[in-house]
Amino acid sequence: MKWVKYIWILLMIYIVCSARTCNENEEASEKQKEQYTMNLLNSVKQVFTADSLSDLLLRAYEITASEKLNDFADFMKIISDTTLDLRFRQHAAELVRDLFVSDESELSGWSKSYPEPGLNILDNLISYSISKGVPFWNQPLHINFIKPFTSINDSTLTGDLSFKYKSISFSGQDSSEIVSGRLLIDVFLMKRIKTFGKDRLTVWDVYLGDMKEDNEWD
Prior knowledge:
This protein is of the alpha+beta class. It has two domains: 2-48, no CATH class; 53-213, Nuclear Transport Factor 2, Chain: A, CATH 3.10.450.50. It is built from five helices and four strands. It is globular and about 60 Å long.
C-alpha cells in the first residue's frame, strides 16, 4: 500500500536526521528520541486523516491511482496463471478486490480481450480467471490522469485515468502487437475506516472504479 511507502519515507527522514550529521548533540536522551518518533507518527496520521488535501497531496494520490492500475494488471497476471499455487492466486484475488470501490465494478474494454462473454464485471472476471485460468495477461500502457480529482462530497473525490493495454501470453509472445483502443477508468479518493493495530482511523485512500472504452478518442 502506498501509505506504507509514505510512512517509510518519513521514518527514513527521522533516522537520517537522528544521525551525527543532523544531530550535533550525540547524547540526546531516549525521551527526546521517543518524542521525535511520536511527532513523526502524528505527522503521518495528520496526512492521511486530514479534512482537506493540499495540491501536492492530490498530485501524489494521482500517481497512486496510476500505480494501482498497474497493481491490478500484475495481480490479474498471478490469478490467471494456473501454474502457480492456488492459494497464492486466491490471495492475489483478494488484493484485486481491495483495489476497487466495488466487486461489481464494470470492466468494459478490458474484458473484451478474454475468451468468454459476460466477464465485464470484476467479480465474474476474478472467478473465471481462478477457475479456468487465462493464457495471457493485459499490460497497461500510456497511463495518463486526464481528469484531476474533484470533490463530490466531504469524503469522496473522483477523477479519470486513460490508458491502453496489450495482451501478453504466458509463453512470452505478445497475443497482439497492439494495443487496445483507449480506455477510461474512474478513480476515487475516499475516506474510509481502516484498522491500524488497535486503532481504527478514517483515512484517505485511492480506489479504482468502472472501466469503459473511449469511443470518442479513436
